[in-house]
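DATA SHEET
Item: assembly model
Revision: 1
Owner: S.N.
Input lines:
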Amino acid sequence: MIEEPDQPPAPFGKRKTGSADLIKQKIDKLGVVIALIAMPTLLFVPFVTFKANRIVQGQPVWVFSALPTWAAACLMLVVIAVLVSAILKAGVLVRMTAACLGLVTVLIAIGLAASFLTPEGNSFARVSTATGFWMLLFAFAMLLIDALARLRPRPLARILLLLAGLALLGLLARIGVWNELSLLKEFSSRADSFWREGWRHLALAVGSLVIAFAFGLPLGILCYRVERLRAAILNVLNVIQTIPSIALFGLLIAPLGWIAANLPGASELGIRGIGAAPAFIALVLYALLPIVANTVSGLVGVDAAVSNAAKGLGMTDGQILRRIELPLAMPAILTAIRIVLVQNIGMATIAALIGGGGFGVFVFQGIGQTATDLVLLGALPTVALALCAAVIMDALTELATRARKEIATA
Amino acid sequence: MIEIDEISKLYDGRAVVDRVSMQIPASTITAIVGTSGSGKTTLMRMVNRLIDQTSGQIKINGQDITGTQPHELRRRIGYVIQGHGLFPHQTVYDNIATVPRLLKWDRAKIEQKVRELLALFQLEFDSFARRYPHELSGGQQQRVGVARALAAEPDLLLMDEPFGALDPIIRAKAQSDLRDIQRKLGMTILLVTHDMDEAFRLSDRIAVMNAGKLLQYAEPRTLLTHPADSFVAEMVGQAERAFRLLSLNGIDAIAEDGQAAGAALPADLTQREALSDLLWSGRDAAPIAQPDGNAPRRVTLSRLLAAAAER
Ligand SMILES: Nc1ncnc2c1ncn2[C@@H]1O[C@H](COP(=O)(O)OP(=O)(O)OP(=O)(O)O)[C@@H](O)[C@H]1O
Ligand SMILES: [Mg+2]
């Protein structure tokens, strides 16, 4: 399962080569890049920002003043160890462990820095993440992604790895590692609304996916069966895709307002010109194109000989669709669902603009108050959700399509 | 018995199949040959109503095919196409079980049928039933395609260039297997082919089509000896007809008592193969392999030459 990069055998003429070739063979280029990012970052880029209170301008603090000496030394050692394993062509498992170790160390260090810098009993002072922290995180994440790409874990293993990562983060949060960090202070002062908006965000993203799928799949099948409709419908969906979300919200205010005012029961259902309803509808509209287009291309991609044979054997049109065409189009349809889910999780942030709720609430509040950590409180969970959705959907797609490989050798 | 009566198919007013009539006796193999675009596929696909005729009538065992729902009709008729059209997302077992499942056979009966068919096509149940089509060789895929068409024991099998994608050796094997299976099960086969040798090797009767018209429908020998027109004569091969004629019969038909020198020929050779052997070895006669104790028999060049000129 583990794929080591092939090392080309040394050509005959160059048997007695000097150190230059040896170095070339032993050194990993990506490792060098990562080291070139991480080492200067550690030394020269501020790790955290300290503010006396939430409003004032912050001051940059470098690693060696942000952490107690022992902790700074530990961080330094760990970073060097990780980089050495990244530069030398260590085994892929070693590299993966090193990357995880690096990530966890940086994550613990930021928490330590926060409690170290916050004066005892001072509830006004704020310690926030600064560029150095993010760059270190980025460097080690690259190392981890590279190791995972070489390891190529199977779908279930990928989901397990994701769960393990989430559990580790949860554990660190539980212990209170980050309690003094500004981000966590923003969180604890609005924990209730955080979870409420979180659920709402998920409901918007997943709910609109379900509805878009319920409409998109039949629409896709229709486009496939009735070729004359295909171009027209796909063009309309394409145009919708190009309307900016703000404009789409604006366009929806009037009709939804009219429905709320004139259709009995509509406003009780929460349908209004602004709020969750237009956001939901916009998400559904944006989701239709990927679903319809992929359904059509999946169905069109079914080998004509296969559907011909199915008909010749006496399947009805419905049976051909259900037993042959849809199963064979499934990989394309699942890909569409993945695209839409990730896209929706990101776009649901915009819903907050018109009072639709979701994590965007914190993002826009944060922008209004120029409170970066509040923006992060909205943005980080959104990114995390999208990442989880992508990993899980990819794994499910691979599981579902493993047995359905096309005839590769015919 | 299939009765095709004045059947026509028009596309945009152009007759692609033009008033074709033929009567295909039960339990025979009929090959439809003709140039590309002559309407062979269209004619065949009208028999299982994949295409609806513009005019005319087709009866199977006395019943007009338009009297049955198309999909129900098709479940009773086996259908094999070039490139086999196996379902890539289903195992060999599920592919073969397609029509029995549509007909709602019970599980045990379906499994028994699949086992029987895999055995018939020399595919080991334990090693093949759970494989997917892409895990089979081209020849194996083709056999599974035919097995799938035979699963519901149809008494009519339609095959559109079934062996077109196979290499010559596998193709010859597939042809003789098909012939054996047809003899064993006794179904009627209607087969479209581009390969004249295949038509002569397999079929009891050959239908020659050109530009939508059926030019001649007759036994292979008649086609050679009495072609209806110059097109048919050219189709069956002017230059080769003597050899084709010889390939239609076995050597036992012209064997005589007597001795001959050299290696013995297998008794099941065709006359064409025997002639080739005699020419190659430079003999006037060759012994025919006989069971121990039987009187020696032989085949002679002069008799072969006489047979080739017989019409
Ligand atoms: N759906 C259709 N619409 C219009 N013309 C068609 C249609 N299907 C077939 N044809 C025409 O009918 C003619 C006969 O087609 P058919 O497929 O029966 O030929 P064929 O004898 O099977 O040829 P080949 O040996 O190349 O398979 C061709 O000229 C073809 O272009
Ligand atoms: Mg054809």
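QC remark: The first helix of chain A runs from residue 19 to 26.
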